[in-house]
Design a protein that fits this description.
Layout (H helix, E strand, L loop, with lengths): L2 E5 L5 H7 L2 H6 L8 H12 L5 E6 L2 E10 L7 E8 L8 H10 L2 H4 L5 E7 L3 H9 L3 E12 L2 E11 L4
Helix pairs in contact: 1-3
Length: 165
Amino acid sequence: MEIALRPYQVSDVEDFMEWCDDEVVRLSRLRHFTSREDAVSYLKETVIPHPWYRAICLDNRPIGFISITPGSGDERCRGRITYALGSKYWGQGITTVAVKKVISTVFEEFPSMQRLETIVDVDNKRSQRVLEKSGFLKEGVLRKYVIFKGNIYDVIMYSLLSTLT
């Protein structure tokens, strides 16, 4: 079982639609793609032009994504990491491997970035564990911080500093 990261391609559309299942949609900002054309459009307009959006691949088949969004201007010292994995692959350590692969190079790829951060729903224990196993520190709870699918949620802020990798 080889886990690799690579840029998405339009030809990944079938795999993308397969792993982006109901459980993933429920817990992430991704939406359900009902047609191949809709998914191709999303890949072409959002995923492929993104500065750092990678497929999490198992034996070269996309089963999720991981992305880094670098800050700009006065916020160029930090970036945000986000990820999602097809639900049938949860609990196998795959996301942890992917996050560790990213943090091994992200500060070299983005030299002005000193901090990598993310927020996680307070109830998403699996994602919290991924971050903790990858070396991220829990900074605290941000109460009523984000509106997600019409509801306001508390989240936990996690960060990793370049000096700690």
